[in-house]
Amino acid sequence: xxxxxxxxxxxxxxxxxxxxxxxxxxxxxxxxxxxxxxxxxxxxxxxxxxxxxxxxxxxxxxxxxxxxxxxxxxxxxxxxxxxxxxxxxxxxxxxxxxxxxxxxxxxxxxxxxxxxxxxxxxxxxxxxxxxxxxxxxxxxxxxxxxxxxxxxxxxxxxxxxxxxxxxxxxxxxxxxxxxxxxxxxxxxxxxxxxxxxxxxxxxxxxxxxxxxxxxxxxxxxxxxxxxxxxxxxxxxxxxxxxxxxxxxxxxxxxxxxxxxxxx
Length: 263
Prior knowledge:
With 263 residues, the chain is of the alpha/beta class. The chain is built from 7 helices and 4 strands. A 4-stranded parallel sheet has the order 2-1-3-4, with helices on both faces.
């Protein structure tokens, strides 16, 4: 949105991909600000666009996500599921109406994941464009940098979840002025069973489930922020953005094929 409309017209003609970061305003323990998810996902998307040499643009972050389960913590804002789905989808559809054919919705808040995927599907069906959804925050999904997390983390299993080692490290790198490390507390021990894991993000579960946050976290933390360092955050940020550029270059090559009505 720093560009003029003629510049946007030129970008669409170049088959530029567009990122739509989607975040949240919610509790992140006593040591991180409410806008942690927004800061991280927008920074990743903006830096990815900067590094792409004109192949990628990014919208500003959509700042309010699906967060009713966090409303026991003051300051949290929440949008209804159907409202958020339609809003995110409409942003993507608006881009396609200007000629953009490849749009990636980038989620920065765990509970937005299903909504973002459905918004992408809705936009594809409405426009015929290539619209995908992915995570831009390793505390949401570590698929992009799972190898680096395993290699460089300092926390034990259970240390990376929410307001954790990873998110605190990212904030120490991006906005250290907003981090109050003297208030950081380790809070682990979330439920882990043979088929369900809320103990650490690298481990998968056979099913998904999200409880009211205040029923399993006293401070709003799920993990170990005391293990965080700015150096770990810098490494995660740099490598996430580098790999995001690769993802988007691959994504831009997906062809927009014609439909066939077989009736």
